[in-house]
Write a structure and sequence with these properties.
The protein is α/β, with parallel strands linked by helices. Helix content is 47%, strand content 22%. InterPro entries: STAS_dom, STAS_dom_sf. This is STAS domain-containing protein.
Length: 91
């Protein structure tokens, strides 16, 4: 599980990509506790979708802003989204 905090955009996506890559390599999937992410841009959205396509990605504890963004793009129906980290772990 990773739990990044703050705003993520083009400049910070390499760090997030590295964290996700490490989790995937060590565990075969990743739970992203997104409760502390307050902003994402299209590069992060692309990273999330690419990660979803290549491994078992579970998003948990979405910040309301992310819930809104995912809903606008319709990807909330594609991604594995859970209300809590515990719920994501039990799946």
């Amino acid at each position: 599980m990773i739990a990044p905090q703050g705003e993520f955009d083009y400049g910070t996506v390499p760090w997030l990509q590295e964290q996700i890559g490490t989790a995937v390599n060590e565990h075969g999937g990743v739970i992203l506790d997104a409760g502390g992410i307050t902003f994402i841009d299209s590069t992060v959205l692309t990273l999330i979708l690419a990660t979803h396509q290549r491994t078992h990605l579970r998003l948990a504890n979405l910040h309301p802003r992310l819930t809104q963004v995912f809903g606008v793009y319709g990807i909330d129906h594609v991604l594995n989204i859970y209300p809590t980290v515990d719920a994501a772990r039990t799946t």
